[in-house]
Design goal:
Structural class: mainly alpha
Helix content: 25-40%
Mean pLDDT: 91
CATH class of one domain: Mainly Alpha
Strand content: 5-15%
CATH architecture of one domain: Alpha Horseshoe
Strand order of the largest sheet: 1-2
Largest sheet: 2 strands, antiparallel
Number of strands: 10
Shape: globular
Radius of gyration: 25 Å
Distance between the termini: 37 Å
Length: about 650
């Protein structure tokens, strides 16, 4: 089938109004004919990039829900959609993060491109085959995005006439969707390279490793309790009675998930994909765990990245502005206390462990091991100290900081900005740093002031400060100048990195073979890079125990992938997001509803509060959220339900 009129603009999929049964609507008037497109390499490649354009970004102000609607994070601003969603104020007509139509537009365009690219005389056969593999990947990828957000999709497997009767299409069972996505990844992999190391202008396009990584993601979700034997989805059926979820548990799904991850690991070794370490990538000769875990998500196109969006300065800058403290930044993207508590101590033990050395209250009397490795004078060598902090040579707590934050693991310091900590993302300029400190506390270092009356709360009429008493630091370029909003480095938005594949693998193996030696091997790779002891060195009694190992595997995932949007999907696929809140429970590990906790940012008297004020460090709930079981998947937009007769709504909506 050859369409007579087609889209062209690179961003038209993202900007046009979408109505009707989305993937079938006629295109706008801004169109070009077949001959105008397929006879030109430039126009053909524009159409290809058009297919890419629906890959969602991470812009907080555009309503990205997967951080702000998770139990690990809070967006303080009530003008952003996630605020009301967390209060339960949404429905199928709310249009919150409505991606359904756009994904189907892109899927339809992938078929059009694949059917017509061979007609372009200005492309070599090799390029034509590569481009076809790219749109095959994108087709499978968009179906994956639909599956994880909405559940079972309407599965369109071939190009379809615009005037087809779309009321004849119903949703496909979940397992059929999984099979189709995996088939598309297998097909795409054959036509894609192992890496783009020889063609850097195409960084961000999929590779063979990317295809396998998507399969790992798809199959671990399919094996998890939400979709594997979930009896509560027995009501989830098409109008003809076809069940959309298999409610019989199948252990073999975990085996498939494990094998998919092992396939990534095998290929990654050939492709040079591995955990990022500073000393293996030209940043000094001595291994620095803090610098390694920090830079794994801030250095563009490092060896750990499997799939990312290139040159994502707009999205990265947006995150920096929202996570940097006031007065001149928005400073309200905030980890919850649950996230803070999840990080281990430097000895690799949880804070609940009596042997961990964790102290909840009081100010530390001694600094951490790495706070001043060059033994600089903190008074006369302030600029040098600040430079060491920004480049990652100096890290950890200082004497006088609250004990709750003392002697924690490197990933904690790379991820969380807490009260009284020195702000990294400011220039080595005493005057500009003092702008962030109250007059009595100006010493050139710029310690963040989250307490009531603190400078970091002087941001204007909106809630431009963290309600939990923390700001996220992960993914923030320490070389940025957030006083003047000058961004020194290019970045990329990371969608999948190698650590996630290792975690997928050990979680899947644990569910059917908890004594498998690869669990310890891959788990210890992650912890060794994080600078803490191996899990079985710390907790030998859990080894081989599926239930105990699962508990620590999920916690390791929570820490390693903190603030990377993984937590949102992990708690849902594990059917843990509706874990109830109880009246005396201040340290609940799961549950997206109920009280979310942080420090007491409203305690005391603003005029007299300072870093010595201990009332700030009291655990208090900053918000009571609403989470119902229907929230496990997004509702299909009501406009689509109204227009497609066989399209059934998700359960409980």
């Amino acid at each position: 089938m050859k369409n007579k009129l087609l889209y062209l603009s690179l961003f038209i999929l993202a900007t046009v109004g979408i109505c009707g049964c989305n993937y079938l609507d006629k295109e706008p008037d801004d169109m070009k004919t077949d001959a105008m497109i397929w006879n030109s390499r430039v126009e053909t490649e524009k159409y290809l990039y058009n297919v890419y354009s629906q890959i969602p970004g991470l812009a907080i102000n555009l309503g990205d829900p997967f951080l702000g609607c998770s139990d690990e994070y809070d967006y303080s601003w009530n003008v952003y959609p996630s605020y009301n969603v967390n209060l339960g104020n949404w429905n199928p007509s709310s249009s919150f993060y409505d991606k359904w139509a756009g994904y189907y537009k892109a899927i339809r365009s992938s078929f059009v491109f694949e059917s017509n690219v061979d007609n372009c005389p200005e492309l070599s056969d090799d390029l034509k085959n590569q481009y076809k593999a790219e749109v095959q990947f994108l087709r499978g990828y968009y179906y994956w995005l639909i599956l994880r957000q909405y559940g079972p999709a309407i599965l369109i497997k071939e190009a379809t006439e615009i005037n087809a009767d779309w009321n004849a299409f119903a949703r496909a069972p979940y397992d059929e969707c999984v099979t189709y996505i995996c088939d598309m990844m297998d097909k795409a992999e054959k036509g894609l390279p192992l890496s783009w190391s020889d063609n850097l202008i195409w960084l961000g396009k999929p590779t063979k490793v990317t295809c396998r990584a998507i399969k790992s993601e798809v199959l671990i979700m399919a094996a998890s309790p939400q979709w594997n034997g979930n009896q509560e989805y027995s009501i989830f059926k098409n109008k003809d009675g076809t069940s959309l979820v298999n409610t019989a548990y199948d252990e073999n799904k975990w085996k498939k998930a494990a094998q998919a991850s092992l396939d990534v690991i095998t290929l990654a070794q050939t492709a040079g994909v591995k955990l990022y370490k500073n000393n293996e990538n030209g940043d000094g000769t001595v291994f620095n765990p803090y610098k390694s875990v920090r830079d794994a998500v801030t250095k563009a196109w490092n060896c750990e990245i499997i799939f990312a969006r290139p040159q994502a300065l707009a999205g990265q800058n947006d995150i920096c502005v929202h996570t940097s403290p006031g007065p001149n930044n928005l400073g309200g993207a905030a980890p919850t206390q649950r996230s803070v508590d999840a990080f281990y101590m430097k000895n690799g033990r949880t804070i609940e462990d009596p042997q961990s050395g964790y102290v909840e209250t009081g100010f530390s009397t001694t600094p951490g091991d790495n706070w001043n490795p060059k033994n600089l004078n903190v008074t006369t060598d302030r600029i040098k100290m600040i430079a060491d902090i920004r480049n990652g040579d100096a890290w950890g707590h200082w004497a006088g900081e609250w004990n709750m934050y003392a002697n924690r693991e490197p990933r904690f310091y790379a991820s969380v900005l807490y009260n009284k900590r020195i702000i990294p993302q400011l220039p080595d300029d005493i005057v500009k740093r003092n702008y962030y400190s109250a007059t009595a506390q100006q010493n050139g270092y710029a310690r963040v002031e989250f307490y009531y009356g603190g400078t970091s709360r002087s941001s204007g009429s909106y809630t431009f400060f963290p309600r939990s008493g923390y700001l996220g630091l992960k993914g923030i370029d320490p070389q940025a100048n957030m006083r003047d909003r000058v961004f020194a480095n290019n970045h990329c938005e990371v969608f999948i990195r190698y650590a996630k594949i290792l975690l997928n693998c050990i979680e899947s193996l644990n569910e059917y073979d908890p004594a498998n030696p690869k669990i310890a091997e891959y788990w210890n790779l992650i912890r060794e890079r994080a600078g803490i002891p191996g899990i079985f060195d710390v907790y030998p009694d859990i080894k081989g125990n599926k239930d105990k190992q699962r508990e620590y595997i999920i916690r390791e995932r929570q820490v390693e992938l903190a603030f990377e949007s993984d937590r949102y999907f992990t708690t849902r696929r594990l059917w843990l997001a509706h874990t109830p809140d109880s009246s005396g429970d201040t340290d609940r590990k799961f549950g997206d509803g109920g009280r979310m906790w942080g420090m007491d940012i409203n305690a005391g008297v603003a005029a007299s509060n300072n870093f010595d004020f201990t009332g700030f460090y009291k655990r208090v709930p900053f918000e009571t959220r609403v989470f119902e079981k229907k929230f496990y998947v997004f509702p299909i937009p009501q406009s689509e339900i109204d227009k497609c007769k066989l399209l059934v709504q998700n359960p409980w909506w």
